[in-house]
Here is the input.
Amino acid sequence: MLNIVIFGAPGSGKGTQSEKLVQRYGLHHVSTGEILREEIASGTDLGNLADAYMSKGELVPDCIVIEMLDGLIRKNSHVKGFIFDGFPRTVPQGEALSRMLSKHGEDVNLVISLEVADEELIDRLLKRGQISGRSDDNRETIEARLQVYYRQTSPLKDFYRERGVLREIMGVGTIDEIFIAIEKEIDRLIT
Ligand code: B4P
Here is the structure.
């Protein structure tokens, strides 16, 4: 199995690059943000709970997201590998992911961290908000999400650096240029 984490601040291009990676490598895409938004749209109990956090730019509690992922990995243990997009977002989530994968004799093979300056992130998300109507793409919530990223999510970079799997990639440029840089890292690993 090839298990890749696409990591980065909100708006760094995780979702955008993940879609291209799925097409290129045939991996199973797991976007916790997408799953949670679908739950919200369907009005499930999980969706209502998640909405209370997401609309404020906060993270949904670890125990909820980890349980969600555990079921998903178990159900898809036959796939070629996973692209984890937006998961893990905290160190406990990172530890849980390794535990869950180890049950299948696997671990995270590569973490691609997309590096983008805050002003560019804010700009992208404000633009997306105008088209997508996403409730968390407004200035106040974007700023809260960035703070949450630096406080709760960015410590994962050291977590993965210590494990020797972190690769930092400049997330600025055209979508295709960034994709080529990611592809190089993956191809180095699998060839
Ligand atoms: P996510 O759905 O993961 O969303 P994101 O971080 O905002 O977006 P992403 O980085 O994927 O940006 P994109 O490619 O779309 O999370 C949303 C919320 O869900 C979180 O805040 C949290 O509340 C909750 N959540 C999710 N996972 C969780 C977890 N594990 N634990 C707890 N809570 C969780 O790109 C953004 C924009 O930039 C797009 O419009 C795109 O077109 C544009 N863009 C991309 N690449 C570009 C480039 N190279 N140049 C110019 N623009 C570009």
Notes: The chain has one domain: 2-183.
